[in-house]
Hints:
The chain is α/β, with parallel strands linked by helices. It has 13 helices and 10 strands.
Amino acid sequence: MRGLSDDNAPLLVRYFLDKISGAISKDIIIQRNPDMWRWREFLPLPLEMEPISLGETETPLIAFSKLPNVFIKDEGRLPTGSFKARGMAVAVSMAKHLNENGFVVPTAGNAGSAAAAYAAAAGMQTHVYAPIDTPDVMLQEIKFHGAQCHHVDGLIDRCGQLAKKAANEYRLHNLSTLAEPYRLEGKKTIGFELALQFNWSLPNVIYYPTGGGTGFIGMWKAFDELEAIGWIDSSRPRMVSVQTLGCNPIQQAFEAGHKDIMKKYTPVDTIVPGVRVPKPLGGRLILSVLQASRGHARAVSDDAIIECRDQIAKSEGINLCLEGAACHVAYLSDLESGAVDRDETVIIFNTANGLKWKMPEL
Ligand SMILES: Cc1ncc(COP(=O)(O)O)c(C=O)c1O
């Protein structure tokens, strides 16, 4: 199965969108089960194939008690407790359909546990490469689903090198972020869902914790596809990429006006696993979405994230993951600086269930 282009760039799936718009309508979509497979025609798996599914439900929008136009999109409700389920459901279904033997995947934790679960459901083997300081629950989850978990003394880029080597050696399919085109297709369903939840318009601003950027790029692709078939108009949200002060290659590149991430961020020093990606393969795509959406990039401190998570748990009853709390910190700082107005409709992505991290000692 093809992974990257000849010059090692990500491959993007293109559809005959006029055929899709002739075959389905908004009404048909609305009548289907509220899960990611209601977008079937916009996904690469042939319609006659059964997907490998663990119940990828539509995730709710939860309004803040004191900020009624700010919504948490709670992706922690998905199988294996994170948004990684969306991408892995499509990528594993496609790999099964194309007769792959099994997988390798480098991970910050959640992609590995999702890959392990979907591969188990598909009856396929998986080798997961995770940094040694990956949260324990995620490492245990990977093994619990029967995958081989390799503990790597290094960051995700080192995990990626080892995974690629193993993929070539054992003829396994490499599920590394954007090294194959199908995880992005699963992730883009977040964008479709938002359009439907906002009655075919879109919110003003979206805060997304960015590591490899699949959801960020995927949402924008979904908006492009919906606009191309006339289901939404051309107004788009400002997309905000959120990282931390200890790993912010996207913010640095964006603010320097670069079109790609030129150098690896070093030294990486943050407790937030999902953003610990020193040089994302999809850097060019992420930066082009920031540009096209007139968005911006933010980096927040680990201390502010911990404090915000604690405060939201007590004031709203929501256990945010560290990455979700990072988005909320970025929003509050933008509110204060005037980069976002109080009356704008805002989405804060909570990309995983907070229970996947060690709870603070009390
Ligand atoms: C909870 C969480 N949020 C955000 C991210 C970053 O996601 P992406 O690679 O799509 O930018 C990750 C990646 O591991 C994650 O686990």
